[in-house]
Design brief:
alpha/beta, globular, three-stranded antiparallel sheet, four-stranded mixed sheet, Rossmann fold, peptidyl-tRNA hydrolase activity, about 130 residues
């Protein structure tokens, strides 16, 4: 599960994917387990939920380079694009509204486009978090 965003800009609308991962880590009782993984330039926490092993990932790069971290982690943990869930902001959704997208285009989102380019696939399911337009 990759939370897309701008790593050094916590609390901004475009980093909502990372905020969701922080909340998920707290709910799964692994919030103290975040560690820096230099191999993929990301913060990583491992968790288990409903019998599934999860890799929670917050890239330590700007949004338009998030895909490099996601692709490196996919290689390290032997994951295919269909195993990777992207969590990201969506300007076209009202604040707080969420939607699931099962692959397809990036719809203009630079972080998603970076993941599609780095993984050579658009099959990643996505949780789109509405942030609205300013």
């Amino acid at each position: 599960v990759a939370g897309l965003g701008n790593y050094g800009l916590r609390g901004t609308r475009h980093s909502v994917g990372m905020e969701v991962l922080d909340r998920l880590a707290r709910q799964l009782a692994v919030a103290e387990g975040w560690r820096v993984d230099k191999r993929c330039c990301a913060d990583v926490a491992l968790a288990t939920a409903h019998g599934l092993e999860l890799v929670l990932l917050k890239p330590r790069r700007f949004m338009n380079l998030n895909g490099l971290s996601v692709a490196s982690a996919a290689e390290i943990y032997s994951l295919g694009p269909e195993d990777i869930y992207l969590v990201h902001d969506d300007l076209d959704k009202a604040l707080g509204k969420v939607a699931i997208k099962l692959g397809g285009s990036a719809r203009g989102h630079n972080g998603v486009q970076s993941c599609i380019s780095a993984l050579h696939s658009n099959e990643m399911p996505r949780l789109r978090i509405g942030i609205g337009r300013p």
